[in-house]
Amino acid sequence: MNNVIRFYEPDQSYGFLSNFAEYPIIVDGVEWHTSEHFYQASKFMARDITSQIYHAATPTEAFQLSREYDRQVRSDWEQIKDNVMLRALRCKFSQHNQLAYWLVATGNNILAEHSFKDSYWGDGGDGSGLNRLGELLMLVREELAGQHPHQLVRYVESAQLPMDMGTFTMHGFVEKKTGKEHVALSYGEIDTKKPVLIRLHSECLTGDALFSLRCDCGFQLNKALKNIVEHGNGVLLYLRQEGRGIGLLNKIRAYHLQDEGADTVEANEKLGFAADMRRYDFCKGILHYFGINEVKLMTNNPRKVNSLTKAGINVVERVPLREGRNPYNNNYLNIKARKLGHMLDEIV
Ligand SMILES: Nc1nc(O)c(N)c(N[C@@H]2O[C@H](COP(=O)(O)O)[C@@H](O)[C@H]2O)n1
Ligand SMILES: [Zn+2]
């Protein structure tokens, strides 16, 4: 038996599901303050009434205005109201990407508008109501879940992540193809009307968390986060691709082979792996959550530029991230340049 998610007030748990939640929708080129404004105005043919509702300052005022003109509701309203509501919901969740991911994240749970006052759109307070709003929300959820790029990742939850350099918001996703748990760290107001500064950072436990000098990862992570703070906004995608996709223990095996003289590519290949096993196609889903289509990408790795471009993301600028070169990783960085195409100078 699936759980029931009950919602009602916009400022309470799952409030985004309410038509009173402050998310504008565009219908036939007209922007409505909320889906409630559009729904209530749709009850009337008289333009003076629809105009008053359109200009209502709040969804509550739009609702109250509709009640004042109750005697002038269009004669066919009972026959069309479900389709009007469905149209409003499809607009709301197709025009607000994060709402769509939050809705899909409710999974197979039953959605119920918990309203003692409404036994048609709501559950009647005791579950005896028709809950048509919940039913239509579950229909829209099913439609979205079957659409690209919702098939790439499933949003789970977000939380604040304070760091010395600033407070980021951490967003957790599950990559549907592999079950891997990836994280996006967003900072500031993400303005998707211009290219967003981002970093695709592949997990490197040794570099990111154990202060390793064998690679440049930890230095790049630190610099990328600082760049985002200095820029004022941006997103770092922290991708669970340890060891260029071969995993931590195989990376230790690769390091052992390198301790015996192999280079970073030869070691991977001796273990039976390709030089680089990573994929980035699912990043399209994480970027879609933020509504991001144009990016300034912090990387030295052309594969990341090409992969995002192939996924339909417009990489308008590559921002070099040359950090942390030292005697312990100099040869590694030279091989990344020579054999993996990284845009790094070779320094002997
Ligand atoms: N397989 C493998 N062998 C090595 O010698 C390595 N240093 C790594 N490191 C992994 O590479 C990724 C970062 O590389 P990019 O700069 O993003 O190309 C990251 O997954 C490290 O764990 N892997
Ligand atoms: Zn590393």
Automatic annotation (TrEMBL):
EC number: 3.5.4.25
Names of required cofactors: Zn(2+)
Binding sites annotated in the UniProt record for GTP: R199, L200, H201, S202, E203, Q220, E242, G243, R244, T264, T299, K304
Binding site for Zn(2+): C204, C215, C217
Annotated catalytic residues: D276 (proton acceptor), R278 (nucleophile)
InterPro entries, per database record: GTP_cyclohydro_II, NADAR, RibA, RibA-like_sf, YbiA-like_sf
Record keywords: GTP-binding, Hydrolase, Metal-binding, Nucleotide-binding, Riboflavin biosynthesis, Zinc
Keyword GTP-binding: yes
GO biological process: riboflavin biosynthetic process
Record's keyword annotation contains Hydrolase: yes
Top enzyme class: hydrolase
Domain NADAR: 7-144
Catalyses which reaction(s): GTP + 4 H2O = 2,5-diamino-6-hydroxy-4-(5-phosphoribosylamino)-pyrimidine + formate + 2 phosphate + 3 H(+); 2,5-diamino-6-hydroxy-4-(5-phosphoribosylamino)-pyrimidine + H2O = 2,5,6-triamino-4-hydroxypyrimidine + D-ribose 5-phosphate; 5-amino-6-(5-phospho-D-ribosylamino)uracil + H2O = 5,6-diaminouracil + D-ribose 5-phosphate
Cofactor binding note from Swiss-Prot or TrEMBL: Binds 1 zinc ion per subunit.
Gene Ontology CC: one annotated term: cytosol
UniProt pathway: Cofactor biosynthesis; riboflavin biosynthesis; 5-amino-6-(D-ribitylamino)uracil from GTP: step 1/4
Molecular function as annotated in GO: GTP binding; GTP cyclohydrolase II activity; zinc ion binding
GTP cyclohydrolase II domain ranges (all copies): 156-320
One Pfam family it belongs to: GTP_cyclohydro2
Biological function: Catalyzes the conversion of GTP to 2,5-diamino-6-ribosylamino-4(3H)-pyrimidinone 5'-phosphate (DARP), formate and pyrophosphate.
Family: Belongs to the GTP cyclohydrolase II family.
Protein known as: GTP cyclohydrolase-2
Natural source organism: Spartinivicinus marinus
Lineage of the organism: Bacteria, Pseudomonadati, Pseudomonadota, Gammaproteobacteria, Oceanospirillales
Gene that this polypeptide is encoded by: ribA
